[in-house]
C-alpha cells in the first residue's frame, strides 16, 4: 500500500491531486467549497462543526448552542460513534472493500505507529513537492 500511495496508485487516484484540487477550489470559490483539515477538526471540533453549519447556511441558533446540540453532533460524528455502527463494522463499499478498513484510531500522529522514519520522509518529500507553491501546508 505504501508503494502504491507513493506512485499515486490509489482507489480514487493520487491523494495529493484530490487534496490540491479541493484546496484550490476552496480558494477560488469560498461559497461552494469548504476545506477542512483533520487536525483542525480534532483540535477544535465544536468550532469546526459551527463553521461547517455556517458554510451550509444553517448556523446553529443560540438555543441549539445553549442546549448542547453542537456537542451532541460532535459526539454522534465521533470516530468512536461512527466505527461502532453496524454498517461500518460489517458493510462493504461498491468495490467490495470492508467498510471497517476505513477506521483506525483517528489520532493525529498515529502514522508513527505504522510507518518507518524513512517511509515518513519519503511521503513528506512527495507531498511537499506536489503541494509546493499552493499555500497548503500540513503539521
From TrEMBL:
It is an enzyme of class 2 (transferase). It holds the Pfam family Sulfotransfer_1. SUPFAM superfamilies: P-loop containing nucleoside triphosphate hydrolases. The keyword Ribonucleoprotein does not apply. InterPro entries: P-loop_NTPase, Sulfotransferase_dom. The keyword Cell inner membrane does not apply. Keywords: Transferase. Belongs to the sulfotransferase 1 family. This is Sulfotransferase.
Amino acid at each position: 500500500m505504501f508503494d502504491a500511495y507513493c506512485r499515486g496508485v490509489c482507489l480514487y487516484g493520487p491523494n495529493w491531486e484530490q487534496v490540491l484540487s479541493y484546496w484550490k477550489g476552496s480558494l477560488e470559490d469560498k461559497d461552494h467549497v469548504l476545506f477542512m483539515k483533520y487536525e483542525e477538526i480534532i483540535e477544535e471540533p465544536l468550532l469546526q462543526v459551527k463553521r461547517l453549519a455556517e458554510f451550509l447556511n444553517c448556523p446553529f441558533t443560540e438555543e441549539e448552542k445553549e442546549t448542547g446540540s453542537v456537542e451532541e453532533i460532535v459526539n454522534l460524528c465521533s470516530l468512536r460513534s461512527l466505527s461502532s455502527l453496524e454498517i461500518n463494522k460489517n458493510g462493504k463499499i461498491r468495490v467490495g472493500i470492508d467498510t471497517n478498513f476505513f477506521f483506525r484510531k483517528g489520532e493525529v500522529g498515529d502514522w508513527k505507529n505504522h510507518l518507518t522514519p524513512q517511509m515518513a520522509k519519503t511521503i513528506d518529500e512527495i507531498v511537499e513537492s506536489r503541494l509546493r507553491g499552493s499555500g497548503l501546508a500540513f503539521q
